[in-house]
Amino acid sequence: MNKYRIHEPEEVTRLNIATVSEVVRAVIIEQCLQTIIGLWWLNGRSDIEDPSIADHTQAMTQLASSLRKAMGFAFSEQASAFVLSSFGPQVVWWTYWYMMPAIQMFVALSVLHSHHIACWLD
């Protein structure tokens, strides 16, 4: 049925407002910006230059302290003490290696999505 249409549907003309050159330019700018921010973020970090010296144990110890405070705030002291005394290392390990990256990815996708929404509203 589409091949017999004289005019394109309104939703097609309304949604396809960017030209190919605009898309290529936006992608190049976004890639340059991500590269600059990545270089700035990684500048001077010795654990990136030599991953064998990254101190994940210290980072997990700091995370455990934050988790203890957060669980004490969210639950009763007895419940949080029981969970941390019974499953503390597993909870910290799981949070450090899985939950934190998932939160970072969610925030990054939310920012990216809101950026694209803002571009469409212009």
In short:
The protein has 122 residues and is mainly alpha-helical.
What does this structure look like?
The protein has 122 residues and is mainly α. The protein has 2 domains: 54 residues; 68 residues. It is 80% helix and 0% strand. The chain has 5 helices and no strands. It starts with 9 loop residues before the first helix and ends with a helix. 2% of the residues are buried. The model has no long low-confidence stretch (mean pLDDT 80).
Please write out the topology.
Blueprint: H1 10-15, H2 20-42, H3 46-49, H4 56-74, H5 77-121
Helix pairs in contact: 4-5
Distance between the termini: 33 Å
Return the domain count: 2
Write the H/E string, N to C: HHHHH
- Taking pLDDT < 50 over at least 5 consecutive residues as the criterion, the unreliable ranges are none
Mean pLDDT across the residues is 80
Alpha plus pi helix count: 5
SS-based class: mainly alpha
State the total count of DSSP E strands.
0
| Amount of helix | over 70%
Shape assignment: elongated
- Main sheet record: none
Rg (CA only): 24 Å
Share of β-strand residues: under 5%
Oligomeric state of shown chains: single chain
Q: Any key phrases for this structure?
A:
80% helix; single chain; mainly alpha; 2 domains
